[in-house]
Amino acid sequence: NAGVTQTPKFQVLKTGQSMTLQCAQDMNHEYMSWYRQDPGMGLRLIHYSVGAGITDQGEVPNGYNVSRSTTEDFPLRLLSAAPSQTSVYFCASSVEFGQGAGGYTFGSGTRLTVV
Amino acid sequence: SQKIEQNSEALNIQEGKTATLTCNYTNYSPAYLQWYRQDPGRGPVFLLLIRENEKEKRKERLKVTFDTTLKQSLFHITASQPADSATYLCALERGRQLTFGSGTQLTVLP
Lengths: 115, 110
Description:
The structure holds 2 protein chains of 2 kinds. By secondary structure, chain A is mainly beta. In chain A, 0% of the residues lie in helices and 50% in strands. Chain A is globular. Helices cover 0% and strands 60% of the residues of chain B.
């Protein structure tokens, strides 16, 4: 049981480049989300999905796109990277949101640097 | 605006003592409150969840309280050990979003 798998673990981008951060879970969780973590700012929600084909914006969605074509995968796309997007990105999943069913399972993170 | 504050950025305690971490919130009516542990370079790990109609929840050496009148949760680690050293995050769940505090870094000194 792998849990939540994020790739890559590290990435350096040049300003203006695009890329996709991958997230996959093998727990059949309906709810998946993306957070970014910056020093002193805590975890901030970027986008989330309550099931395949359904996505919605979180607190800081600008500059990011998501899609959810399968239950297992929830990729995060950076459209045109900016230095302000330098951060550690975490993907998380949960059995079912809003029912107090349990906590989130987080991936190990992707450390992204935009130069 | 909604705000979550965790008592201090860093807390040092002696091994064997009880660590108490505080999570205060404003402009929220959370249905659930969660606590996570995060080690350097790793993702957060879920510890405990408490519902708005529950006063207290325990798990081994961990205890969480939730006071919706005071808008506060307390997180206790009894008989603390150096291995408990980590950053602890509280998170509030309402609607379809889970919002995190910035965390308290706990160091347990041997």
